[in-house]
Structure formats: structure tokens, C-alpha cells
Amino acid sequence: MTNMRMTLASLLLITVAHVAQAATSPAEFDKSLLPYLQSHCVRCHNAEKQEGEFRIDKLSKNVGTENNPQWLEVMERINSGEMPPKTEAKRPTAAESAQAVEWIAARMREGETARMAARTRVTYNRLTRDEYVNTVRDLIGVEFDAKDPGNFLEDPEWQGFERLGSVLTLSPSNIEKYLAAAEVILNEAYPPEPPPLKKGQTPPEPFGGTKPAVA
Fold first, then answer.
1. C-alpha span between 131 and 75 (Å, rounded)
2. pLDDT digits (tens, 9 = 90+) for 50-99
3. DSSP label at residue 87
4. Cα–Cα 20 to 30 A to 209, which of 73, 99, 157, 185?
5. How far is CA 54 from the centre of its chain?
């Protein structure tokens, strides 16, 4: 089992490294996108001339990992047909622009995949019993006794501290108790309608009685 886990971990690392490399390959940039930019974009967005105060020649070749807002702007302008402008004598074909847009979009997806794979583990933490009771009371006005036997387990402590996310983990047993508590709380907040009265039966007095208040 240990060897299998190590093998799976190694495969995952190899996959992540491959994705990251694919999203940040300058050689692929030079081959797939640079000719389009040089022919239709760089002339108006370079060191000497910056239409719209925008330079393309200084953007990173690591599309998907660096200068993402700027590359998204380039992709959207090409995709909408705004760039290159229609006044240009030499304009790319629709297929050439579509190929450039698709290449940038693919690098963006690969970069996002690499960032997601490199994230640390996400944990779900629960409220303490007192926090849960206070929240329920503030939201729907029900006083729930979380410390009653059979309700919530005692909150774990770490060196005398209770409200620590690292120890307030959410387990399947916690979820089962939350579901059971929710049913009790909702039944108290919104009691079911009483059964219909039988023939000749007098309805119960409303809460507070029917006598007028004393002046």
C-alpha cells in the first residue's frame, strides 16, 4: 500500500510539472503566437509606439503564468475583432485570429490547472458548540442545548484553547449530528400544523389567551 501511494504521488507530481511546463514554454510561444503578434500587433504596441498605452513586446512569453490580465486583454481584443483595427491594410484572416485566440485560451487553462493542482489541502472547520447555539438563537430565535447528551460532542481543546480551526475538524459523525439538530431546531421554530378538529371539538386558545390586556 505504501509503495502504491508513493507511485501515485510521483505520477501526480509528474503531471503537475508537465502542465506547468506546457503553460510556460517560450519555445512554443515563439512558434505558435509570436509570428501573429509581429505581423499584426507589435508595430503599434512597442517601445516607440504604444497605442492605448499598451505594449505587447514587453509581455512575458510564459502565457498562463505571467502577465495574465494583459494576455486576457489581448485575447479579448483579437476575439472581438477590435484588434488589429479594421483600418489596417494588412489584416489577419479569421482563421489566423481564431488560432491565436485558441492558443492563448489553452495556455490560460493550463496555467489555471497547474495553480489549482499546486494548492494546499482545503479543510472544512466547524463551529464550537457555543458558537452554534448562539448562531441558531440569533437567526431563528430557538434555544438549542448543544451540550445535552446525544447532541454534539464535546469540543476538543489544544493546550487549553477551544476555538482553533486545526482541531475543529468536520467528520461524518459531526455532519450526522448537525442534520439531527437541524430537524429538532426547525420543528421547534416551525411546528407542524395541528390536526384538523373533530366534530364538536373546541379549538385551543391562542398563545397568550383571549382576555383583553389590563389597561
1. 48
2. 887 888 888 999 999 999 999 999 999 999 988 888 888 888 999 999 99
3. T
4. 185
5. 31
The Cα angle at residue 92 between residues 88 and 93, in degrees rounded to 5: 130
Number of domains in the chain: 2
Inside any domain, residue 199:
no
Q: Helix, strand, coil: what percent of the chain each, to 5? A: 50, 5, 45
112 plus 158 within the same structural domain: no
Which residue type sits at 207?
F
Residue 81 is assigned to a structural domain of this protein: yes
* Alpha helix ranges (H) inside the chain: 2-23, 26-32, 34-40, 68-80, 94-117, 129-140, 172-189
Contact 112, 24 (CB under 8 A): no
Residue 31, CA distances (Å) to 25, 28, 121, 146 in order: 10, 5, 37, 64
- What residue has cell string 426547525? 186
Report if residue 214 sits inside a domain: no
pTM: 0.49
| Cα 55 from Cα 59, distance rounded (Å) | 7
The torsion defined by the Cα of 128, 133, 138 and 144, in degrees rounded to 10, comes to 160
CA distance 34 to 177: 59
Indicate whether 37 and 74 sit together in one domain: yes
The verdict on residue 28 lying in a domain is yes
Q: Angle between the 2-23 and 94-117 helix axes, to the nearest 10 degrees?
A: 140
Shared domain check, 105 and 156: no
Residue 162: domain span? 129-189
**Res 11: pLDDT:** 36
